[in-house]
Amino acid sequence: MGVDPARDWMVPQYRELMATVHHGLPLEVISAQYLGKIGPARIPDGVKVLPTQVSIAAQLPHATGLAWGLRLRGEDAVVLTYIGDGGSSEGDFHEALNLAGVTNAPVIFFMSNNQWAISTSRRVQSATTSFALRAAGYGFEGVEVDGNDVMAVYDVVVSAVEKARAGDGPTLIEAVTYRMSFHNTTDNPARYRDPVEYEEARGRDPIERVQKYLASLGLWDQDREANLTVELRGEIDSALEAAFAAPLPTPRDLFDNIYEDPPDRVLRQRAQLLDGQQ
Ligand SMILES: Cc1ncc(C[n+]2csc(CCOP(=O)(O)OP(=O)(O)O)c2C)c(N)n1
Ligand SMILES: [Mg+2]
Fold it and tell me: 184 CB under 6 A from ligand 1?
């Protein structure tokens, strides 16, 4: 059995939208996060997902700590965390993987090597021929997989989860893929990306690949795709509607949910703010 959302934890970076939904985080909560809402963006109790992390690699030490803690408590849960190729150059990457090896923590580091860190090519990110090889230096297994092959990715993740659950330690998975789109809406890959490389990657589109495979088994066709698209559009629209309708944060919300016992300075600032509002 693979990752079990009822007991296992997921520690995302920022590209794992569908994985977090799969792990139980409702779409309206994710939408509320993106809209800057506070209360409605709270991760519901029982959903074992940590917040999206935009500070590159900062999620990794938390993932290792969480996994180590679960093991110390005697739970048989595992932690699945994510990182990019660029994130492997951060100190947090080294610290988290080293500690995971030393503590034999039940954590899986899933690296999506999409060949780019914004405009920095994989070629200048590291002199290593394979990021997966680095795991050896931390004393655990590294696996390289075709990240455009859904079945292969599923297979290596399930094996790594089983291994971690059995107490046999962490795994670094390097899923080799290609970032087809721009990094974000301010990016323009035409300024730095070789069009030939892009065209070549288009021929390996993982979505088309799985569609063709399912069609060959008689499990997919245009009607099913059209129906699913309508159904999912409806789900996304209603999640967005709920998130837009949720109340906007007020300045006093800034003081909540930060400290369990706020220091006097923070309490004074809160009181000043509330005074000024009267
Ligand atoms: C600590 C830190 N430094 C820089 C940035 C700016 N930044 C955002 S995404 C990114 C590139 C990340 O590339 P990669 O790790 O390959 O992940 P990808 O976005 O390609 O999945 C950078 C440098 C950041 N968010 N955090
Ligand atoms: Mg990348």
Answer: no
